[in-house]
């Protein structure tokens, strides 16, 4: 056991492979969170609308994406995109023939659905008095949203959103099933090369653990700064 | 219509397997969650430490990493153990135990959700009125009796929403066993999709089945909620 640990972890190939995997995982998670977050803001506003024709489609979107496993969404997009008529001859094929973009789309849509519901909850928790005060000042709907509702809603959403980030980090491990070499993909390669499941998967598990604790620590600081007024004394 | 090019019956079998996997995992998670919660609330430092380490490590690492560790590593560990047993008994005990995908799936999902259940149960136990427990003691009940007659039934009322939540996530997590090769409905549908080149035809119905399971379990949990809230006036 000890010999194989030394053999695996003194080989620079292992570390280079792990580093590439880490970069890929961070890219995937970061970009999909960014895109998903940007989609979620307008969707959450639509979701709180009283107009059924605006509210209902967003409800259907979040229900479908939150009610089915992410891996099915990934497979649908990954295998489905190749079926689009003529895509293999178009310039888009350069993007989609590798798994990265289909994967990014699946992750972004999935996190958008969860984030929409988080933001919706935060928007609906806006104290009534604040909205009434804004109305009394003669603010328009857009101004109210921008100045009053959204800033405080984003703050309230921080604790739930930090959970979503960790969820996304962990869920991103399924990218390794569609040929992407992310962190878990790198561990699977190390496993296949040395036939050493414990060394490969425990080491990668520790890296995920460090990432998780890192994110939690950052958000703890953020909550202290931005949510100080809501902390119990 | 439900033939799906002849793949229908096998995918239906996969759906049954998904349910079996989910229910067995939930049972394991339930027991581990109860033990974990009791450990976390215990005054015994060792029990507290074990329970805290368990929930922290499990929740910090992706489920798929645990699953692969157990699936690829589990057989090696089991082999070592039985080899040792064989040597120790001079060949008296000769067992070969195969660590299959189903067992890895149940163990991993059970252990992961056991950690989440621990938090659910801990919160629920803490919302049981202390006076109730004191009353139990005053009646001369043993701690086991207090647990069985007073804590558990009242704790469940607070735990039901959390259990329902965990169950919905667990149900979707079962799809991951398709990666380690278990023939659940996701794997069967994916294989059919690859063979026929029709991903939508096979994967969309499977997605619908997950939605159906989620909706059905919602109904069941609402019933359970009513049952365990007997005698509680809701505001």
Structural class of chain A: mainly alpha
* SSE run of chain A: HHHHHHHHHH
How many discrete structural domains of chain B?
1
Measured distance between first and last alpha carbons of chain A: 51 Å
Word description of this protein:
The complex is a heterodimer of chains A (233) and B (235). Chain A is mainly alpha-helical. Chain A has helices at 2-9, 12-47, 52-67, 70-80, 92-96, 100-124, 128-136, 141-171, 183-194, 197-226. The N and C termini of chain A lie far apart (51 Å). Chain B is mainly α and 235 residues long. Chain B has a single domain, classed as MetI-like (MetI-like fold, Orthogonal Bundle). Chain B has 8 helices and no strands. In chain B, helix 1 (8-41) packs across helix 4 (101-126). The model of chain B has no long low-confidence stretch (mean pLDDT 88). The chains are: A mainly alpha (233), B mainly alpha (235). The A-B interface holds A 63-64, 67-73, 75-76, 79-80, 83, 169-174, 176-177, 184, 187-188, 191, 197-198, 201-202, 204-205, 208-209, 212-213 and B 57, 59-66, 68-69, 72-73, 76, 172-176, 178-179, 186, 190, 193-194, 197-200, 203-204, 206-207, 210-211, 214.
């Amino acid at each position: 056991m000890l010999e194989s640990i030394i053999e695996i972890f003194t080989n620079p190939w292992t570390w280079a492979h792990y580093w590439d995997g880490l970069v890929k995982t961070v890219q995937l998670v970061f970009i999909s969170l960014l895109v998903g977050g940007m989609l979620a803001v307008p969707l959450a506003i639509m979701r709180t609308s009283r107009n059924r024709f605006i509210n209902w489609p967003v409800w259907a979107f979040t229900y479908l994406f939150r009610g089915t496993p992410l891996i099915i969404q990934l497979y649908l997009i990954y295998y489905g995109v190749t079926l689009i008529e003529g895509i293999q001859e178009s310039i888009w094929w350069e993007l989609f023939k590798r798994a990265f973009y289909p994967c990014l789309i699946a992750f972004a849509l999935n996190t958008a659905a969860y984030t929409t519901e988080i933001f919706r909850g935060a928007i609906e928790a806006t104290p009534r008095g604040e909205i009434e005060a804004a109305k009394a000042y003669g603010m328009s709907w857009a101004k109210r949203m921008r100045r009053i509702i959204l800033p405080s809603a984003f703050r309230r959403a921080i604790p739930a959103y930090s959970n979503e980030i960790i969820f996304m980090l962990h869920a991103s491990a399924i990218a390794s099933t569609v040929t992407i070499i992310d962190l878990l993909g790198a561990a699977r390669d190390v496993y296949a090369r040395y036939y050493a499941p414990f060394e490969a998967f425990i080491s990668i598990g520790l890296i995920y653990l460090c990432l998780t604790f890192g994110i939690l620590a950052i958000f703890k600081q953020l909550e202290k700064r931005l949510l100080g007024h809501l902390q119990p004394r | 219509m439900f033939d799906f090019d002849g793949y229908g019956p096998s995918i239906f079998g996969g759906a049954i397997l998904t349910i079996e996997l989910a229910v067995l995992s939930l049972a394991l998670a339930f027991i581990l969650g109860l033990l974990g919660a009791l450990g976390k609330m215990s005054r015994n430092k060792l029990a507290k430490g074990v329970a805290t380490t368990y929930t922290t490590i499990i929740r910090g690492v992706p489920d798929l990493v645990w699953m692969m560790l157990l699936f690829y590593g589990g057989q090696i560990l089991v082999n070592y153990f039985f080899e040792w047993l064989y040597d120790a008994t001079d060949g008296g005990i000769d067992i070969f135990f195969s660590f299959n995908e189903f067992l890895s799936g149940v163990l991993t999902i059970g252990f992961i959700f056991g950690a989440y259940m621990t938090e659910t149960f801990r919160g629920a136990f803490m919302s049981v009125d202390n006076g109730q427990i004191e009353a139990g003691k005053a009646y001369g009940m043993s701690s086991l009796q207090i647990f069985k007659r007073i804590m558990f039934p009242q704790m469940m009322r607070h735990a039901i929403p959390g259990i329902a939540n965990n169950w919905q996530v667990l149900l979707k997590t079962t799809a991951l066993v398709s990666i380690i090769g278990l023939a659940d409905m996701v794997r069967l549908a994916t294989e059919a999709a690859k063979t026929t080149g029709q991903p939508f035809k096979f994967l969309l119905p499977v997605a619908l089945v997950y939605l159906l399971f989620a909706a059905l379990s919602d109904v069941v949990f609402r019933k359970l909620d009513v049952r365990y809230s007997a005698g509680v006036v809701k505001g």
